[in-house]
Specification:
By secondary structure, the protein is α/β, with parallel strands linked by helices. The protein is built from eight helices and eleven strands. The chain has a single domain, classed as Carbamate kinase. α1 packs across α3, α5 packs parallel to α7 and α6 runs antiparallel to α7.
């Protein structure tokens, strides 16, 4: 068993990670690919909780541009995260990883209600826990939900899984001279307005001394290397 730097983690996934080539919907093959990567980490002995976004199914910003009520748009996004959570749960269980979905909005026919102590017990028993429906409140993003659940679960680190290998001072896809940061503080992120997570999530992590690790989910073994403490991605600390 490899020596781990982080024993309990909260993995934040974007909804787009489940989408097909057109960036929309849920592609079972993508869910299976993510499940295999999570399984590899789970087999290292890491306790894993997950928060997943809903950008592949619903973007509240588009509704707001058409005059939709903000709270309504946010609740629709929360429901979409439960759909993504169920898809990922199914993929994980098909590869042999016991998984539970807990929802901040009660829907007992499809998910457990969010109960902190029960979630911690699931983690201690080796189950993956997926938190759906954000915080259960409008006006908060899934970034903030991830930070909140990570603090509640007493996670060692919040891992922001992306398609780039860390945090840059500009978009590396548009700027070939973009500079990558190996380490940052939360104040640096806020002052530079770097798009790591939204300001509420960053502040919550800073106030609770919770590190954020930004890694490329799709780079082979990057996640495993990061959990062993190797220098991978960008580490944001308080």
């Amino acid at each position: 068993m490899p020596k781990l730097k982080f024993k309990r983690v909260l993995l934040k996934l974007g909804g787009e990670s489940l989408a097909g080539e057109d960036g929309f919907g849920i592609a079972p093959t993508q869910a299976e690919a993510i499940a295999e990567r999570i399984k590899g980490v789970h087999e290292m002995g890491v306790e894993i909780a997950i928060v997943i976004g809903a950008g592949n199914l619903w973007r509240g910003k588009q509704g707001l541009e058409l005059g939709m009520d903000r709270a309504t748009a946010d609740y629709m996004g929360m429901l979409a995260t439960v759909m993504n959570s169920m898809a990922l749960m199914d993929a994980l269980e098909r590869v042999g990883v016991y998984t539970r979905v807990q929802s901040a909005i009660e829907m007992r026919a499809v998910a457990e209600p969010y109960i902190r102590r029960r979630a911690i017990r699931h983690l201690e028993k080796g189950r993956v826990v997926i938190f759906g429906a954000g915080t259960g409140n409008p006006f908060f993003s899934t970034d903030t939900a991830a930070a909140l659940r990570a603090v509640e679960m007493d996670a060692d680190v919040l891992i922001k899984a992306t398609k780039v290998d860390g945090v840059y001072d500009s978009d590396p896809k548009k700027n070939p001279d973009a500079k990558k940061f190996d380490a940052l503080t939360c104040i640096d992120v806020l002052n530079r307005r770097l798009e790591v997570m939204d300001s509420t999530a960053i502040t919550l992590c800073m106030d609770n001394n919770l590190p954020i690790l930004v890694v490329n989910l799709w780079n082979d073994n990057d996640l495993e290397r990061a959990l062993r403490g190797e220098k991978v991605g960008t580490l944001v600390t308080a």
